[in-house]
Amino acid sequence: MKVALVSTFLEDDVYEKRLTDKFMEEVICNEDHFYHRIAKSLTSVNFEPTVFYMSQENNEKKFLHKYGHEIIRVPSKKISFLHEPIVYSSKLINNLKKNYQICNFVSGYYVMYKIPDMFDYTVFKLNNKMPIVARWAGGSHKWLAPIRKSIKKSALQKCDKILVSSIDEINVLQEIFNINKEKISQLINPIDLILFQKRNKNFASKKISINSDFRYLLYVGRLTKNKGLELLLEVFNELKSKYENVKLVIIGEGTLTNYIKNFVIKNNLQEKIILEGRLTHEKICFYYNISMALINPGFSAGLPNVIIESLASGTPVITTDVGASKEYINEEKQNGILIKPSKKNELKNAIIKIIENENTFRNFDIKFLEKFSYQEFGEKLASIYSELLKK
């Protein structure tokens, strides 16, 4: 069965680069992004997934991901409209109608302020043509204008199933958008439990050629404004003298890259902060193993994949109490510390607590992570698809 895994973002904007053939082949086809992990899970249960990327590149083109599934870059239009552009792709709609049995939106809570977005448009066009599965990844609904909220509500109600990460997200869908409970399923994106596992620090250090004599804090993710990176840098700079053997490793790319580099130079942190750029999971997994904690100080709702990757690696997490994170991380479980977003003192105290009590946060239970495996995720999603196709 052919399944379309659809991102309704204009991915040129997400990556801040045009999705040229070269970029698709060198970056997208080798990424471990959760879009492709979902595809890998579906392949394991004998589905044929295709991941769609919308781009302003003029030609539609197929690519092969390293996991073996197909990627299609589909041409899209970006039309200026007030303070936000309209993103639109008729070719995406036509391709889905012609070639696929199920449409599964893999991008999360995608909304614009006042106008119908590509998610709304696609749902309205595919309604009653095929089963539609959406992903609600949290986010604030309060700033939606009344007409915008009405459009979003209508689009969500036309979906046959909506996947969520947390109980809070279930409540929002039911109470704000009047989604029937039977349409909602709690299902969290899969991770590779073979790559992300506990390892000896010395062994992991050798794999990535890093000095095991130092102690490390870790950030993994996009280097953008909503990730709390500015606050993390300020706190780390204040603690650098107190903990001379502690370093901060930052993995990722984004618009804040130059800001971070300048901050490092300005504060003489060249020997204290390691910028690794974009890495594959085959390398990132070892950074979790050498670190005292993963720090996730951003505002992202849902459940960031890096949190589960860190826990699977036996590494505790400092994260904001946003979205589903609070359902998995707490000090009682000794697997991390929850903080309020933008609270500098809370972040600082949490880092100090981890540094000074590292062993306390090293023996937490990870058996529950089995439900995040490729196989289990694929079987659950396949069951959802089969149920929808029977209707």
Main attributes?
Rossmann fold, 14 helices, alpha/beta, 391 residues, 36% helix
What do these coordinates show?
With 391 residues, the chain is α/β, with parallel strands linked by helices. Helices cover 36% and strands 20% of the residues. It has helices spanning 11-15, 21-26, 34-44, 90-99, 118-126, 146-158, 167-175, 201-207, 229-239, 257-266, 281-290, 305-312, 344-356, 374-390; strands spanning 2-10, 48-55, 61-64, 70-75, 77-79, 86-88, 102-105, 132-135, 161-164, 184-186, 215-220, 246-251, 273-277, 291-296, 317-320, 336-339. The mean pLDDT is 91.
Shape: globular
CATH architecture of the largest domain: 3-Layer(aba) Sandwich
Largest sheet: 8 strands, mixed
Specify the CATH class of the largest domain. Answer: Alpha Beta
Structural class: alpha/beta
Write the CATH fold name of the largest domain: Rossmann fold
Question: Helical stretch count?
Answer: 14
**Uncertain regions: pLDDT < 50 for 5+ in a row?**
none
CATH superfamily of the largest domain: Glycogen Phosphorylase B
Q: How far is the N terminus from the C terminus? A: 16 Å
Strand content: 15-25%
Mean pLDDT: 91
| Number of discrete domains | 2
Helix content: 25-40%
- What's the SSE pattern? EHHHEEEEEHEHEHEHEHEHEHEHEHEEHH
SSE map:
Blueprint: E1 2-10, H1 11-15, H2 21-26, H3 34-44, E2 48-55, E3 61-64, E4 70-75, E5 77-79, E6 86-88, H4 90-99, E7 102-105, H5 118-126, E8 132-135, H6 146-158, E9 161-164, H7 167-175, E10 184-186, H8 201-207, E11 215-220, H9 229-239, E12 246-251, H10 257-266, E13 273-277, H11 281-290, E14 291-296, H12 305-312, E15 317-320, E16 336-339, H13 344-356, H14 374-390
Parallel strand pairs: 1-2, 1-7, 2-4, 7-8, 8-9, 9-10, 11-12, 11-14, 12-13, 14-15, 15-16
Antiparallel strand pairs: 3-4, 5-6
